[in-house]
């Protein structure tokens, strides 16, 4: 290969032996390469010959087929191992009321492992697992690999911790009930009237509506409709499913599923808010993990949508910020106090030396606590950053006057945005802005964006400086 001597090429193998590259000096980049000599070069580096390598070199031999400006070319990669997996439960039904005999899921059969192969042809051992059948949750049985409900009840779909709770039934709750506690999953046959207080230690299913009541549910809540008026407060530990929410004050720890609409409500949801065939009119909907809806806003009321804002992180940041600033101020005071003593340490008395040592130790302890608090914030911020990237998906329209708020940035819609559209925020750490992806168009359209005063990215950066 006189026009492309092998002295101008070499083969490099990664430390983990999962990749191999052909590295080429500039003088040989514009010349044709001889496949036989490339194979010889690869084999000298320890790569086994094979049709894949031969094909790769055939692709690279002609300068016109190579990536312009590239000087290194991947020529081989490892085949990763496939770990062995034991049999597991695959649940195909979500949480909710079930009847005896209902199909809840099936057994996912065990999968045998398979060794991989590194670029030098050596095996990469696969991981092993204990081959055992999963434990069948209480209230269920296996029939030919299918998971069947043995009794009527409320099905909690939680993998190996799944269960079917027995359900207590009670009649409608009226204003004369005042306050009541349920220690097991309960089905209310009718409405929950105004001024009734309910605490459910498990799940709560309401055949009718909840009207201006105060309800706290540890697990899931299913209800036809929720009226808040001025007095209603609804707190649900996991998922809430409702036909509609009207003037409701709602806090949801999991996901919120609504069939028809959310009207003039204040909703705080740690998971996703999902109403693909419904609409949001007025009030505030705070969806930390994203929102999917048909229509947002109207001409008569202000609607605020918050996406990806992490209330838990905000509270942690506020707490840690105050502690860090106080500790830094104290450290500064200690060091100012000790500076005159340490300016001439030889003149210090034993008592002064002991005091200086105590102060230095105190300052070091405070500094260590500051670093620990910052480390906790950075770890929590990784989760927050994932949530901040959540999106707003609207199928039909976002009407003028709607405010959409992401982490550190917001926009107010000036004229109706027609759907389908997906709206996200980008560039959080530099110049946060909101963009829209319309239909199937992969090119984002920047919306009029303005920064908001409370920006956790900027605040944490200032704290860590």
The level of helicity is: 10-25%
Q: Describe the sheet with the most strands.
A: 22 strands, mixed
Averaged pLDDT: 87
Strand content: 35-45%
According to DSSP, the number of beta strands is: 34
Uncertain regions spanning at least 5 consecutive residues: none
The 3D shape can be described as extended
Count every helix, treating DSSP H or I runs of 4 or more residues as helices: 5
- Give the radius of gyration: 32 Å
Structural class: alpha/beta
What's the topology here?
Blueprint (H helix, E strand, L loop, with lengths): L8 E5 L5 E6 L10 H10 L6 H10 L11 E6 L10 E4 L4 E3 L4 E6 L7 E2 L5 E2 L15 E4 L2 E4 L3 E4 L6 E3 L2 E6 L5 E4 L3 E7 L4 E4 L3 E8 L2 E4 L3 E7 L5 E4 L3 E7 L2 E4 L3 E14 L3 E15 L3 E6 L6 E5 L3 H32 L7 H39 L3 E7 L4 E4 L2 E4 L4 E2 L2 E6 L6 E6 L6 E2 L3 E2 L4 H9 L1
Parallel strand pairs: 13-15, 14-16, 15-17, 16-18, 17-19, 18-20, 19-21, 20-22, 21-23, 22-23, 23-24, 24-25, 24-26, 25-27, 26-28
Antiparallel strand pairs: 1-2, 2-3, 4-6, 5-11, 6-10, 7-8, 9-10, 11-12, 27-30, 27-31, 28-29, 29-34, 31-32, 32-33
Helix pairs in contact: 3-4
Q: Can you offer a commentary on this structure?
A:
With 465 residues, this protein is α/β, with parallel strands linked by helices. Helices cover 22% and strands 38% of the residues. The strands form 5 sheets. The chain has a 22-stranded mixed β-sheet that branches. Helix 3 (311-342) runs antiparallel to helix 4.
In short:
This protein has 465 residues and is of the alpha/beta class. The chain has five helices and 34 strands.
């Amino acid at each position: 290969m006189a026009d492309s001597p092998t002295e101008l090429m070499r083969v490099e193998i990664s430390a983990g032996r999962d990749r191999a590259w052909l590295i080429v000096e500039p003088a040989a980049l514009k010349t044709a390469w001889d496949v036989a000599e490339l194979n010889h070069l690869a084999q000298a580096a320890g790569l086994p010959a094979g049709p894949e390598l031969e094909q790769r070199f055939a692709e690279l031999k002609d300068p016109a087929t190579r990536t312009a400006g590239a000087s290194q070319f991947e020529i081989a990669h490892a085949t990763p191992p496939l770990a062995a997996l034991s049999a597991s439960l695959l649940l195909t039904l979500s949480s909710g009321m079930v009847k005896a005999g209902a199909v809840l899921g099936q057994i996912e059969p065990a999968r045998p492992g398979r060794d991989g192969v590194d670029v030098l042809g050596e095996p990469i051992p696969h991981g092993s697992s204990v081959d055992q059948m999963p434990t069948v949750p209480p209230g269920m049985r296996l029939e030919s690999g299918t998971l069947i409900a043995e009794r009527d009840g409320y099905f909690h779909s939680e993998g190996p911790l799944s269960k079917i709770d027995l359900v207590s039934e009670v009649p409608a709750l009226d204003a004369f009930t005042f306050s009541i506690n349920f220690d097991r999953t309960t089905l209310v046959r009718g409405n929950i009237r105004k001024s009734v207080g309910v605490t459910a230690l498990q799940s709560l299913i309401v055949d009718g509506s909840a009207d201006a009541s105060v309800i706290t549910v540890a697990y899931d809540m299913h209800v036809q409709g929720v009226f808040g008026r001025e007095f209603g407060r609804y707190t649900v530990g996991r998922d809430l499913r409702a036909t509609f929410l009207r003037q409701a004050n709602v806090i949801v720890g999991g996901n919120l599923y609504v069939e028809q609409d959310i009207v003039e409500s204040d909703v705080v949801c740690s998971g996703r808010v999902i109403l693909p065939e419904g609409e949001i009119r007025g009030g505030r909907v705070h969806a930390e993990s994203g929102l999917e809806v048909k229509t947002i806003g109207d001409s008569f009321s202000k609607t605020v949508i918050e996406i990806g804002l992490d209330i838990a992180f905000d509270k942690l940041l506020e707490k840690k910020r105050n502690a860090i600033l106080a500790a830094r101020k104290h450290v500064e005071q200690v060091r100012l106090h000790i500076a005159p003593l340490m300016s001439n340490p030889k003149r210090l008395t034993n008592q002064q030396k002991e005091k200086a040592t105590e102060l230095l130790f105190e300052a070091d302890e405070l500094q260590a606590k500051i670093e620990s608090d910052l480390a906790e914030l950075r770890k929590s911020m990784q989760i927050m950053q994932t949530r901040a990237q959540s999106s707003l998906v609207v199928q039909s329209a976002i009407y003028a006057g709607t405010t959409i708020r992401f982490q550190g940035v917001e926009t107010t819609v000036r004229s109706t945005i027609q759907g389908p559209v997906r709206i996200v925020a980008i560039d959080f750490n530099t110049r946060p802005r909101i963009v829209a992806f319309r239909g199937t168009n992969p090119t984002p359209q920047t919306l009029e964006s303005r920064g908001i005063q409370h920006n956790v990215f900027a605040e944490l950066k200032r704290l860590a400086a």
